[in-house]
Amino acid sequence: MIKNSWKLTFIIISIAFLFVLSACGSDEKDSASNDGADSNEETNYSEEVNYTITGIEPGAGISVTTDKAIEEYDSLKGWTANYSSTAAMASELDKAMENEEPIIITGWNPHWTFAKYPDMKYLEDPKGIYGGKEVIKTLTRNGLKEDMPNAYKLLDQFNWKVEDMEGIMYDAKENDEEVAVAAERWVEENQDRVDEWKNGVEEVDGKSIELVSTPWDSERASSNVVKIALEQLGYDVTVTPVDVAVVFESIANGDGDATLAAWMPITHKDFYDKYSDQFDDLGANLEGAKIGLVVPSYMDIESIEDLEPAN
């Protein structure tokens, strides 16, 4: 009886041991299979965004440049740029960032989105379609220097930083208020800076001047800050927001007096070249601007050429 019992026990232990070995082998195989799948799996961001770039207003400088990029880059063949509005683009960006979903936008500095999401990044642009660093220039109609020498002098001395402009835009966004309100608060807090622009400028008595601008928050910030500075000198200032093509046309034909919204050397190059002999270029009022295709930092992609053409 003891001998038979021992044999039975040995058989049971052997069967159990073989079962454990089989289970472990199966787990290791499954694990190896999963590890292999994970290591070989790469996110196809082009497919994830449906071969679509989320843009702003059609006809904007960055939109025109993006159309050129789609033509020039093999990696963007068959892609579509979905142009709508700056607000719509920002809304889509908010949704994507909240859910950590991929998105490719037409982006630029200065803009409040970079103040809100400072870890966004530009895709490298090996062909240089979007250019490098940009400046925003001040242009005046021919004859303004003679007609309004004091306004001309202040416009010529106006200069600020990317952080100044983005701060106003982000402040307006966070407080759900007009950019003009945030610009007024900025002037109150930075009157010493404004006084530097007014240095050597004489006051006037109600002389009218019109600033022509694009309807974007960046240019709303600059035009409203300068509007307040001119009003402190006694000018009656009107700010007229129009399409970028009309900005250049109105300064060239003298319908507007000045603009602070000329992005160069790439963004507004076509408009600038068309009217270059019909306005006075006062130089950069802001340096360090930039345009390009922008993605959230959680997207593991670095260059436009890392994208894939649509099938």
UniProtKB/TrEMBL annotation:
Alphabetical list of InterPro entries matching this protein: ABC_Gly_betaine_transp_sub-bd (IPR007210)
A GO biological process held by the record: glycine betaine transport
Record keyword Ribosomal protein present: no
GO molecular function: amine transmembrane transporter activity; carnitine transmembrane transporter activity
Cross-referenced Pfam families: OpuAC (PF04069)
Keyword Mitochondrion: no
Predominant location category: membrane
Subcellular location: Cell membrane
ABC-type glycine betaine transport system substrate-binding domain ranges (all copies): 44-189, 207-308
Keywords, comma-separated and alphabetical: Cell membrane, Membrane, Signal, Transport
GO cellular component, one term: ATP-binding cassette (ABC) transporter complex
Signal peptide range in chain numbering: 1-25
Gene3D superfamilies assigned to the protein according to its UniProt record, in alphabetical order: Dipeptide-binding Protein, Domain 3 (3.10.105.10), Glycine betaine-binding periplasmic protein, domain 2 (3.40.190.100)
Name of the protein in question: Glycine/betaine ABC transporter
Lineage: Bacteria, Bacillati, Bacillota, Bacilli, Bacillales
